[in-house]
Amino acid sequence: MADNHSFDAVSEINHSEMHNAVVQAQHECAVRYDFKGTRASIEFNKKDATLKIEADHKGQLETVIEVLKEKMARRGVPVNALIRGTVEDATHDTVRETLTLHSGIDSDDARKIVKDIKQLKLKVQAQIMDDKVRVTGKKLDELQQVMSYLKENGPKYPLQFVNLT
C-alpha cells in the first residue's frame, strides 16, 4: 500500500468528442427547415480551441448555439466550457460570434482552490503545477472529501480529477 495518495484537478475537454459535436451541429444546421437558405454555420478551429458561429440575425445565432450545446451535452462535453464572445456584425447583414473553449485552471482560481482546501482542515497538501492543482494526502477518504468539495464549490468551468493513485 502506498504511503501517499494524490490526484490532479484539471480543466480540459476531449477535443475529439468536441469535434464530433461540432460536426453533428453543422449537419443539423444544414438539414433543418428553419435554417434552409440562411448563412447559419459553425467553424471549429482545433488549434486555437475556438468556434466561429455565423447567422443571419441574433435570434438565429442563439438557436445555432443551443443546437451546439445540445450536441455537446449528448457527447459528454461539458457545456460550461464554452466562453461566449461578443456578437459582432459581419458581411451581408449577418452576425458573428467567436466562442472559446476553456482549458486549464487559471492562476487566480488555482490559488483560491489551494486556499479553500487548506480551510477544510484536512491532512492534505495542495500545490499548483502549471495549469492544474495536485492534491496529496495519506488517506483516500480525505482526498475524496476534497473532490466532492471542489465539485460543489469549485470554479464555474468544469473540473476533472485525474491520476488518482
From TrEMBL:
InterPro entries: UPF0234-like_C, UPF0234_N, YajQ-like_sf, YajQ/Smlt4090-like. GO terms for cellular component: cytosol. GO terms for molecular function: nucleotide binding. Keywords: Nucleotide-binding. The keyword Nucleotide-binding applies. Gene3D superfamilies: 3.30.70.860, YajQ-like, domain 2 (3.30.70.990). Pfam families: YajQ. PANTHER family: UPF0234 PROTEIN YAJQ. Belongs to the YajQ family. Nucleotide-binding protein. This is Nucleotide-binding protein BSF38_01091. It comes from Paludisphaera borealis.
